[in-house]
Specification:
The chain is 27% helix and 24% strand. With 547 residues, it is of the alpha/beta class. The chain folds into two domains: 218 residues, Glucose Oxidase, domain 1 (3-Layer(bba) Sandwich), CATH 3.50.30.50; 191 residues, Glucose Oxidase, domain 1, CATH 3.50.30. The strands form seven sheets. A seven-stranded mixed beta barrel has the order 6-12-11-9-7-13-14. Strands 20-26-25-23-21-27-28 form a seven-stranded mixed beta barrel. Helix 1 packs across helix 10, helix 7 runs parallel beside helix 9 and helix 15 runs parallel beside helix 18.
Length: 547
């Protein structure tokens, strides 16, 4: 055994012993690898300017004044905006649309390849198989052996030009000199049987090849049903090591791709390739042993939005005040790619209200919430048996106490996320088919102000619900009190810095009456945002320490 292998073995044993004796003091660090969404950021066609504040407001405080103590943005974007995922079907070579990718392919161990020494800041450089092999020799990582059913994220160093572009210093990020990968490297990655591949550039093929109709790296990767993430924002501390990646694309029906949030869990005590791989293999076994649930509804035309139907006024194209919906963007005859464009606001579908959505929580915009509030223990409460199927009602503290009495092993603790199911998942599906639309539009239940106060006092970090508004329609839409009284649950939670996620759906009923670990991931990390469409991954029974 050579000295390198011996030293890696010693390090791995040391980490194992530390984990045994450190107990609960040890924790994984959550790192966000997503770029912020903001006007002026880079996009394929140049500068993106798709955020418009509600009611024509220019400032957050002006928006509160104009919109009754609420604040938010309208958004106009293609599926391939910001840090985003390409589904294999983005190109004609790939079979799977976004909604066809199995959810277990959105998490797993991930190697961060620091290819900056090979790219060397050269315009249009294409990383070759020879470069990849040289990287393997340098780091001791064998991708063919280690990366099966995993992810590969490649750092070229181009992400540093994102902020330069925003600041007007240079346009290198969109000057079409960004690097990519050659066909032989793409084929090698596909042969490694990876789940996903990511880079910090606009395209894994250099601009010239895309425009010439020869996006061969895309074609190779997609034909093997591997998804791609572009515009990753890397963190130097995880270069050339293994992490655990959890990625959350916006849940767009028939999507060619979507804005995506990229979280990684880093074992900061595991230094180097071999120790971090050993650590992530152990963590992966824990994740794979836990039942996984998707707690989000699809974004699709015909779904519910506040007091209306998404995509119902498509004649109004060009004016965000007239319509919301999903529209065609490109199709396969236009260069072999397919995609859609979306017009919505931050509170569309399954979405998170940042505390700043209300005036009372103004300082906590979506990008200011601590990441360990989005990745936390989660209690899923089945509150659906406590009220009528039709009509408005509050889930009160008396009902919650009854539920806790019946489920003594499930408790609310400081730092938890609490998710309530009020039997609205199937009503959402009925609404999409035009049946009983009033159930989710004007007669939905909510969570009582007394429950909100209890959760605030307990120190929870987020509250989730499957209804349109966490305050029931009888208050927030038809209440006779003040704005604060009509929205008391919003005011109590958001005013304390506790985010609220509404319209939770998907597998919620199957996950009810359990506790595990939740990843509540606003898919577009909007700068100073009031919220955002969210993907929620819930792992029942999973208990790992988060820093």
């Amino acid at each position: 055994m050579n000295w390198t292998k011996k030293s890696n073995l010693i390090i791995s044993i040391g980490i194992f012993l530390v984990l045994i004796f450190a107990g609960t003091s040890y924790a994984y660090k959550v790192i966000d690898l997503s770029q912020k969404i903001e006007n002026g950021m880079p996009a394929w066609a140049g500068k993106w300017e798709g955020m418009t504040m509600w009611a024509g407001a220019k400032t957050q405080m002006e928006c509160y004044d104009k919109v009754g103590n609420f604040y938010g943005y309208d958004l106009k974007f293609t599926e391939h905006t910001g840090t985003h995922m390409d589904s294999p079907a983005h190109n004609s070579y790939g079979p799977w649309r976004l909604d066809q990718i199995p959810i277990d392919k959105f998490h797993g161990k991930c190697v961060i390849m620091d290819m900056r020494p090979w790219v060397k800041d050269r315009d249009g450089y294409e990383v070759s198989l020879a470069d990849v092999k040289a990287w393997e020799q340098k780091t001791g990582c064998n991708l063919m052996r280690d990366a099966a059913r995993s992810m590969i994220f490649m750092w070229t160093g181009w992400d540093k030009y994102w902020d330069d572009y925003l600041a007007g210093k240079n346009e290198r990020f969109v000057a079409y000199g960004f690097p990519g990968i050659l066909q032989d490297a793409a084929e090698y990655f596909a042969d490694c049987r990876i789940e996903g591949f990511g880079m910090d550039v606009l395209s894994i093929d250099i601009y010239k090849k895309v425009m010439e109709g020869n996006p061969v790296a895309h074609q190779v990767i997609f034909s093997n049903n591997v998804w791609v993430i572009e515009n990753i924002n890397f963190e130097p501390s995880i270069a050339d090591k293994w992490v655990y990646a959890v990625v959350a694309p916006m849940k767009i029906y028939k999507g060619s791709g979507a804005p995506v949030r990229v979280f990684v869990l880093d074992d900061t005590m595991a230094k180097g390739m071999a120790p971090s791989l050993a650590s992530m293999k152990a963590l992966e076994r824990k994740f794979m042993a836990a039942p996984m649930f998707d707690l989000a509804n699809y974004i699709e035309n015909g779904m519910h939005i506040w007091m209306s139907v998404f995509g119902s006024n498509q004649a109004g194209v060009g004016n965000l005040n007239d319509f919301r919906g999903i529209y065609p963007w490109i199709n396969y005859r236009d260069g072999g790619f397919y995609g859609q464009q979306i017009f919505c606001n931050e509170h569309t579908g399954t979405h998170t209200d940042s505390p700043a959505h209300r005036r009372e929580g103004a300082k906590w915009t979506i990008d200011k919430i601590a990441l360990n509030h989005f990745v936390a223990p989660c209690l899923v409460v089945n509150a659906s048996r406590y009220g009528p199927e039709e009509g408005d009602w509050d889930f009160t503290m008396g009902m919650f106490r009854d539920w806790m009495k019946k489920n003594p092993g499930l408790t609310v603790n400081k730092g938890d996320i609490v998710c309530f199911s009020q039997n609205m998942v199937h009503k959402w599906a009925l609404h999409n088919r035009g049946i009983h639309r009033e159930w989710v539009t004007t007669h939905f239940p909510g969570i009582g102000g007394d429950v909100a106060k209890y959760l605030k006092d307990k120190g929870v970090v987020g509250v989730l619900t499957d209804v349109t508004s966490i305050d029931p329609a009888m208050r927030c839409q038809r209440g006779k009190g003040t704005d604060q009284e009509n929205n008391i649950t919003h005011v109590t939670l958001l005013g304390k810095g506790i985010y609220v996620t509404e319209n939770v759906g998907g597998d919620l009923q199957q996950a009810a009456n359990s506790k595990g670990l939740a990843f509540v991931m606003p898919c577009m990390n909007t700068k100073s945002g009031s919220g955002g469409h969210s993907r929620i991954w819930y792992f029942e029974g999973l208990d790992i320490p988060i820093e």
